[in-house]
Amino acid sequence: MTKKVYLAGAGPGDIELMTLKSARVVKEADVIIYDKLVNPEILKMAKEGCEFIFVGKEYAKHLMPQEEINEIIYQAALKYEVIVRLKGGDPFVFGRGGEEALYLKEKGIKFEIIPGITSSISVPAYAGIPVTNRGYTTSFRVVTGHEDPNKKDSQINWQSFVTDETIVFLMSIHNIKLITDKLIEVGKLSTTPCAIISRGTTKEQKVVVGTLENITEKSNGIPTPAMIVVGEVVKLREDLKWFEEV
Ligand code: SAH
Predict the structure, then answer these.
(1) Using a 6 Å cutoff on CB, does residue 149 contact ligand 1?
(2) Which residue of 122, 132, 211, 246 sits 20 to 30 Å from the alpha carbon of 33, by its own alpha carbon?
(3) Closest by alpha carbon to 154, among 145, 164, 142, 141?
């Protein structure tokens, strides 16, 4: 087998939402470099003797700078044949997989991308919220909520959020008040439906529903990882809620 780094998605939490391809490379791996968002159950699939390197990245607990992670992957690639860089959800959706792949390319290391089921659509689905739905909205967007919306040179065009699009904010809970205030400030209705989904697709899934105006107070103490979904489609949860009832 040729030496290769697999930048693989682990899915959003529920182990069965991992792709067959990711599962195959996990089984073949000599080393697995993984994030905090990866369900640890997945690691049990690895072969005996596989090395595990935890590079636990989760916002607000930045354990390790990206440069260091890039270097760890590279060093693992020098040592092993089958290197799996396993990331929560999809490696290219706010996963910094692109940066890691670029680093490997610079170093002349072969890599392969294995997309994963991103939390941005699957977690709403487990909460009974379709990100698009006829008669509600024809599009959705996924945004990082990491940035302070009042930052002067913000790269986010907040004005553009005044649409009927569904907006999924990842990495957003710590900024929830700033984000919801900003959306109201730029002209979204304060009654726009919102949901917070915590630990989606897992046994600990929690969903809180409200409006732009009151979701912040309702979010108090909700565990991470969590996301905010904004838009009329949130109303569909009332009828489409299913996971909590399984
Ligand atoms: N690459 C990942 C996203 C990484 S950003 C993907 O495609 O899913 C990390 C953010 O994803 C978290 O801050 C949170 O907003 C969201 N997230 C990931 N898994 C989640 C889960 N199971 N439940 C709720 N939010 C989740």
Answers:
(1) no
(2) 122
(3) 145
